[in-house]
Amino acid sequence: IQSLNLSDVQSGYIYLSAALGIGLGSLFVSLVSKKEIKLSLALWGGFGTAFSYFLIYFFEYQLIPVVFLILSTGFHGGLYIVPLDAYIQVVSPKKQRGSIIAASTFLGVLAVLFAAGYLSLIGDVLVLSASTGFFFISFITLIFSFYLFFNLRKKIVFNNIEE
């Protein structure tokens, strides 16, 4: 929005593309996974999100590529979060499931608060462009994606969700 000099109304299309991407990514997970939890999709989601963030830096002033990259970020975000949430719900013990899901949700909200702080640091304190923020966050996302890869590689497919 900053680099493209968009109005509030025009920026709504950017948000719409992100929401559409999340929906499409979530639908894709559902269609591909069927009755399994495929954690490999979460890995693809993490790496795809990092790559999309990285490319936003290079297309900072071009509306159409940015819209598609935000769509891609949302799509990969859906690939990332849906398998992880499903896995948490299935493997958590029944007596603790509510607490575990609540803790997961709390950590998600905490991440949103950290993101707001990150945006403030990048834009207000360091006076860097939004695309530079995307550039840096791409590396942070990549680090977390590798962390996930090395910690989940033995649990890539979890069968029999109904049990």
Structural notes for this entry:
α2 (39-58) runs antiparallel to α3 (63-91). It is built from five helices and two strands. The chain is mainly alpha-helical and 163 residues long. It is 78% helix and 2% strand. Strands 1-2 form a two-stranded antiparallel sheet. The chain is globular and about 50 Å long. It starts with 7 loop residues before the first helix and ends in a 5-residue tail after the last strand.
Keywords for this structure?
163 residues, mainly alpha, two-stranded antiparallel sheet, 5 helices, 2 strands, 78% helix, globular, disordered C terminus
Biggest sheet: strand arrangement: 1-2
DSSP strand (E) fraction?
A: under 5%
**Cα-atom radius of gyration:** 17 Å
Report the principal-axis shape.
globular
- Count of β-strands: 2
Can you give the helix content as a percent range? Answer: over 70%
Helix and strand element order = HEHHHHE
Mean model confidence by pLDDT: 90
- State the separation between the terminal residues, measured CA to CA: 46 Å
The largest β sheet comes out as: 2 strands, antiparallel
Number of helices: 5
